[in-house]
Amino acid sequence: MIILGINAYHANASAAIVVDGRLVAAVEEERLNRVKYAAGLPVKAIQYCLAAAGVSLSEVDHIAVPRNPWARLGTKLRFALRMPHFALERARVLRRFAGIKEELASAFDIDPHSIRAQFHRVEHHQAHLASAFFVSPFDRAAVLSADGLGDFASTMWGVGEGSRIRVSGSIAFPHSLGMFYTAMTQYLGFLKFGDEYKVMGLAAYGSPAYLGEFRRIVRAEQPIGFRLNLRYFTHHRSGPEMTWRKAGETPVLGRLFSPFLEEQFGRARAPEQPLEQRHKDFAASMQAHLEDVLLANVNALHAQTKAKTLCLAGGVAFNCVANGKILERTPFERVYVQPAAGDGGLSLGAAFAVYHQILGKPRSFEMDHAFWGPGFAPAEIRQAIAKRPSNSEDTHVAELSEDALLQATARHIAQGKVVGWYQGRAEWGPRALGNRSILADPRRAQMKETLNRRIKHREIFRPFAPSILEEAAGEYFERSHPSPFMTFAYAVRPSKRAVIPAPTHVDGTARLQTVSRQTHPLYWSLLRAFGDLTGVPVLLNTSFNDNEPIVCRPEEALACFERTKMDVLVLGNVLLEKKSSERSSEESSAAVLDTRS
Ligand SMILES: [Fe+2]
Question: Is residue 577 within 8 Å of 499, Cβ to Cβ?
Fold first, then answer.
């Protein structure tokens, strides 16, 4: 049985294909059309998924779409009367959903009648919950989804058992933790779609001096829930002004906070203004309050379900700092966050919701790695290298055995070089997890600045993340609960903070990726090789890109390598090294703490 999940006409458009209950492929459209957070109909993602499964669109049995226009119809109609513009925009999107079969047929140049699949509409947050629970390792778990807005709800919770999820509650528009976080992110001058994670990084530089004020902005409710104080917001009056209908555009979000917020906290920061301490304190207060509200809800969910395990989804589930605190301050023993926890994961969730919840099939799949995107054969990699522009003559190219490749890569990184690491299939979700990564030496305190100056060009307050051998997590971090998808931040043990200064954030935490030998043998071996060489089985791992979607094809990796001051690129088994490395002697000879003694 073939099920195709499609997240369309919504940010993070994506497709996922499930064959006989097992995921075969999943990818976000942005990786293929190279437009960050691309919306629209994800034609390229669908093409890739069908090709990966070796089927044509007419062979698909079920098509699952994560949107249900009938959900919360009463609330929708009430707000439609108040916000005609927003209602009109929604109606336009829904019309496109109604014609999705015809649009698919036209995109694939086939007769609509040849698409014999049954179409299913899965409510937004039910798709989120399904994306977390049905691919988790748990038979029974509490489930919670929280984000900005989807099908007029922001939050949903319940319990998953076997092939069923029972929803026990939800929170409708306009009350939303996602909207709250986005509105406050905008106030701080970060206006781009998806900027929330920047503010999470900034929060560590402040103290929660405004917590009292924030308690007036969002109030936790008993037993589960919260309410926004709508005086601080505009979205309930004008509707969140989102534009995300075209595949070729990054979504745009209108201003969500009201003048009242500025009356309380002063003028909002403009993007070009410097970040003052009060901005950092504002970010810290917002983050602390989000954690408080979330933890109150998660604790209540535990009391309600008595489950030992929890599955999280929705954009809020990317708050790795809050996720780390759930392990610290709630009775849940295990927490699972699927790598595409945000709206990209909706295609996956909708497909699994159809398989289990609607068709009643038993579970047989666990997502224990993130490599569901496109991969390229060695011949394609060689071809891409051969086609490089002629000005790349100052690059040394060598094809190596796996062992030699691991040794050489570890050596380059230990020498302070910045290495592009491109292997196997692309990651599903926004994090690079060791297949489309830029790797560097975590022991060098200046590496963060080096990476920013030479390649990433991002805000200096944003931390870089470490990958670590799963077995060594407890030695370096206060917790060893698995974090294979970089969705948890833990405190670095005080004795190790000077050992891995580059990925240790200013508050002593790090958003780690634990790497398992079983599920990710090549990257595990590289970490071990680096550990054997340096005594530190940790690598600084950042996404392989430079202000663009993460590279997907070998050509894109090569272009990023040529364009930036990356020293080495490992493309499959081929190692490319720039002969004229621009590293300064200060960088290459900087003292590194030797931990082997
Ligand atoms: Fe969502």
Answer: no
Q: Calculate how far, in angstroms, residue 148's C-alpha sits from the geometric centre of ligand 1.
A: 7
**How many A from CA of 539 to the centre of ligand 1?**
32
| Closest listed residue to residue 423, CA positions, set 281, 522, 518 | 522
Residue 174: cis peptide before it, omega within 30 degrees of 0: yes
User: Between residues 583 and 218, which one has the greater pLDDT?
Assistant: 218
Q: Would the pTM of this model clear 0.90, i.e. be above it? A: yes
pLDDT tops 70 at residue 282: yes
Q: Which residue has the higher pLDDT, 79 or 194?
A: 194
Calculate how far, in angstroms, residue 461's C-alpha sits from the geometric centre of ligand 1: 27
**Rounded distance, CA 87 to CA 240, Å?**
11
Q: What is the CA radius of gyration of the chain?
A: 23
Å from CA of 147 to ligand 1 middle:
5
Q: How many other C-beta atoms lie within 10 A of the C-beta of residue 73? A: 12
Q: What percent of the chain clears pLDDT 70, i.e. is strictly above it? A: 92
The type of residue at 278 is R
Question: What is the C-alpha separation between 357 and 126, in angstroms, rounded?
Answer: 10
Q: Which residue has the tokens 């963060």?
A: 448
Residues 499-557 pLDDT 10s: 999 999 999 999 999 999 999 999 999 999 999 999 999 999 999 998 899 999 999 99
Backbone angles phi, psi at 110, to 5 degrees: -130, 165
Measured between alpha carbons, how far is 269 from 184 in angstroms, rounded to an integer? 11
Rounded Cα–Cα distance for residues 34 and 482 (Å): 31
CA dihedral 26, 13, 312, 148 (to 10 degrees): 180
